[in-house]
Amino acid sequence: MIRTGASRRTRAGLVALVALVLTSALVVRALSAFDWDVTVFASFGAEGPTRAYAEERLGEVVLRGDLGHDGKYFFVQANDPWLLEPGDNAEILDFPIYRSQRMFYPLLAGGFGLFGPETIVWGLLVVNVAAMALGTLGAARLARSLGGSSWWGLAFLGNLGLIFTLTIDSAGIVAAACAIWAVALVYEGRIAPAVGLLTAATLTREVMLLCGAGVAVWLWTEGRRRQALYAGGIPFLLLAVWEAYLRLRLDADEPGVGAIGPPLVGLVKAIPEWADDSVVLATGLLVIGLSILFVMRWWPSRTPLGWAFVGFVPLGLVLTDKVWIPYFDFTRALAPLFTAAILLVFVESRSGRRRQEFVSVGPGRSRGGG
Fold this sequence. Notes:
Blueprint: H1 2-33, H2 39-42, H3 49-58, H4 71-79, H5 96-101, H6 104-109, H7 117-145, H8 154-157, H9 160-167, H10 172-187, H11 191-204, H12 209-221, H13 225-249, H14 265-274, H15 278-301, H16 304-309, H17 312-318, H18 321-324, H19 327-333, H20 335-346, H21 352-359
């Protein structure tokens, strides 16, 4: 038994190493194409104040289109993650409070406020590469708990939305890695560290509150109500505290970002637009198909994996066409669902014996103790 456990841990580590090597290879290829200028990942645009902000601190930077992407904002945040000088930093963001809610990724990349700009621009990339490997390790560990092979952990590495996230120094990889690890720890009965990771995921990307709420529902149905309150309440409470701090530090009354709208309207508007590009159409149909399969397996299984990520299905239904039309955007918005769907449909659903072993432990207890 000890040898088997050690062997499985080694295999999960090997899967994570494969993820690290492949992610690093992708990064090296991109850097070599831009004369090893790491600012290509930060995605600064030709327009807007973030260009001048970056050039003042880094010199000439690679520009990606007129507007750039999320990485430019995380670069600004990482230079002042605690909002000690918001007038020089956060106030140049397009939506200062909305952007600053997502604090954990730039906090890591900025060395908790200790790094300078030239280190930060590398830190954004290094944190994401590490998160891709660690997220794959967490997925491998979760797959093993579900009774499957550790190699299913590559469902994290192969997540198209997370790969897109890597290319623009955005926060989705860190958020998804924290959530996957949290669910893996729930399966092992380690609720306290799972709640900590659910909180980190929420402070990385506020929509990850859905994961904490889902885990809380599962714990509640198992009769573990105090743990359910921790899982659902602590991430929400700390996000609320952080937002209250933001409103004290920032003098901003900003409109919504336009990502949420009436149910199905955005998707219905987007589908005709997909027809003009076969790749976008195939990707969109794949997302819809995976979402349907996920829901079909979620209710019969009623295990932590399903509950933790099912909230992303109704989220997809209320995304606007602004998000649904570009596949670069909707794959990133719903990225955590894809890895979870693969594990739920192709691993968990084929391991009924292990699932029953987990579920039958009873209220207040779970395999692995803790």
